[in-house]
Amino acid sequence: MNTLVLVSHPQIADSGTQEFLKASLPAEKISWEHIESQTVLDAAYEQAQLRQADRIILQFPLYWYAAPAGLKQWEDTVLTRSFVYGDHRYPLAGKELGVVVTTGMPAEAFQRGGAEGLTLDAALAPLAAVAQRAKMTWLPTFAIHQFSYLDEPAKLRLVIAYQRYLTQQQPDSLKNRQAWFSDHLATMIAQLAEQDQPTGRLIEETFKQKQTDLETLQDTLAMIKEQEDD
């Protein structure tokens, strides 16, 4: 699966959050682009990138309950009517569209009755409508709240969650999570400091054993259900 990450941030050099996320990108099958760095937006080039991607991620800080102006300019230039649906070919149909949004407020502020007065889903509804119009699959929003307050363990968890959001098969089921970790654990362990690798290998062995135990339990439950059906 090829993932395209389109980042909109007017002052990205000053953003510790965006620097962290860029450093957290998986090594393979990821294309990353900062929209505001483009002196001139080449619509044909951008459209070609969209055609080649399987999963498209729009990544930005929330500014006054919306994306930065750079993303709106990108939409107006690239997502033309003729490209998205005008010729009835729908080149983006079946592709996945997700949003990674950062906010300076805690998560509870965006709940019903919260301090912000609306949910993130409500704020991002126009992008969800674009996905529907283009016949794309709209992914659950990946929200990062108050990054500067996260401690190191929380940041490590964020790296894993972010990488899964970019590359794991949807839906985010237990089966798909297991498959993702099975594919990526060895690489993660290889990137650990030498003194930490024994712990990493122990985690890998424990994961494989738990996975085997779960599969055995699922087989047992399936047998019990078959007997009950008989």
Structure description:
The structure is a single chain. The chain has 9 helices and 6 strands. The model has no long low-confidence stretch (mean pLDDT 89). Strands 1, 2, 3, 4, 5 and 6 form a 6-stranded parallel β-sheet that branches. It has 230 residues and is an alpha/beta fold.
Number of helices: 9
**Parts with pLDDT < 50 across at least 5 consecutive residues:** none
Biggest sheet: strands, sense, closure?
Answer: 6 strands, parallel
Overall pLDDT confidence? 89
Radius of gyration using CA atoms only:
20 Å
Helix content: 40-55%
Shape: globular
Overall strand count: 6
Q: H/E element string?
A: EHEHEHHEHHEEHHH
Can you describe this structure in just a few lines?
This protein has 230 residues and is an alpha/beta fold. Helix content is 49%, strand content 13%.
Provide keyphrases for this structure.
230 residues; 6 strands; 49% helix; 6-stranded parallel beta sheet; globular; alpha/beta
Task: Please specify the SSE layout and strand pairing.
Blueprint: E1 3-7, H1 16-23, E2 30-34, H2 43-52, E3 55-61, H3 69-78, H4 81-86, E4 96-103, H5 120-123, H6 125-133, E5 137-138, E6 142-145, H7 152-167, H8 174-190, H9 197-229
Helix pairs in contact: 8-9
